[in-house]
Design goal:
It is a single chain. The chain has 434 residues and is α+β, with helices and mostly antiparallel strands. The chain folds into three domains: 118 residues, Arc Repressor Mutant, subunit A; 244 residues, no CATH class; 48 residues, no CATH class. It is built from 16 helices and 15 strands. Helix 2 runs antiparallel to helix 3 and helix 11 packs parallel to helix 14.
Amino acid sequence: MSKSIQDKLLQTQDVFSSDELESLCRRIIASGELGRSRHYRGLLEYLVQCSITKKTPKELELAIEVLDRSENFDVSTDSTVRVYMHQLRKKLDAYYQNNEDGTEYRIVIPKGQYTIAAIPQPQAAEPVSRPARMPRMNITAGLMMVAILLLLINLGYMVGRDNEADVVDRVAEHPVWNSVFGDELPIMLVMGDYYIFGELNANGNVARMVREFNVNSRNDLEELQFSEIERTENYLDLDLSYMPEGSAFALARIVPVLQQSGKPINITMMSDLTTADIRSNHIVYIGYISALEKLTSMAFAGSGLSIGRSYDELVNMDTEEYYTSDAGLPEDGEPFRDYGMFSTFPASNTSQVILISGMRDAGLMHTAQALSDNKALDDLVVAIDTDTDEALGSFEALYEVYGIDRMNFDADLVYARQLNSDQIWGTGSTIYQY
């Protein structure tokens, strides 16, 4: 905390009455800014009561009385309390960013202390009307939007030079795309991202960044901390995520096709996708199979494929054939094999999901290339052997992709099959029905 803020610190009892402080505590909890963890709520309530009674709690007291630690808890080697206080400080900042606009004072947790204090809340210089606050965008989302803009500018130049506009028009008119273009429902482009968090060292500093497949959001991290506290007590939310490199190429191929629909196209990260989004939009997903997250159960419910020993492997359940990517760590100049997966199916009575995915970059890039090429789309229709456009609303395909140095050079369509829509509706996806 800066010296100027330290100079403004006030005792809470000099600013708030006991009733006002308890009421503020209830408003903060009710806002949802503390998340689902009972520990943050318990910490805030405990600190408020200590402030009212003019008590300064010790780190050991907080560990035992609020965080349910044993009496032999060692504050010199275990930074659990410090981590929680650091996170609670951030959550209070978030609360005041989104609430209490007209309040004169706010509460803070001074750094290095286990108490709450009050400081004047900064006021606007003039009571002028302000434009609506834009949604918070993390670093990955911001870079992604810049990448989209640059790629589309470049693509626009190529289209004007080589008369590729006609090609995009024909692709957009293909029956495979009709399931999301043939009505008025908007389209949501969902990017598969990966949540990463920090691991603290003994000094409370971030020593390294961690990626866990089962931790895909701040709430997941909190649940992991509480379920496996011995191993994860030093983990810290960094509000960071990343996307695969192949996503940029896929965006450049797919966005121009989506624009031909003339529909509004929203964009979000998979980590931010909600059930309401799936109900009220057609979903077009771009990313790795391992980042499908909320769509995984739906994608494989009626599928003839299942995930193997890892997300780099799929199993054909009819033939027991294994499709395994070795593109994870290719040697320089050595060929590798990857797999790209396409799938489309109904998510509700009115909304459709289209998955453009791959085990790794090469598979993802080729799938996007195939979905933006009229001949490749025709090959899909031939492969599933159907004469009706309706059947194109529920099928899947798998490409075997060959490449060198992380680039795809050739590919074969090795699997195509109708999906069992009844199983899609009946397994793991009933929340989307209405």
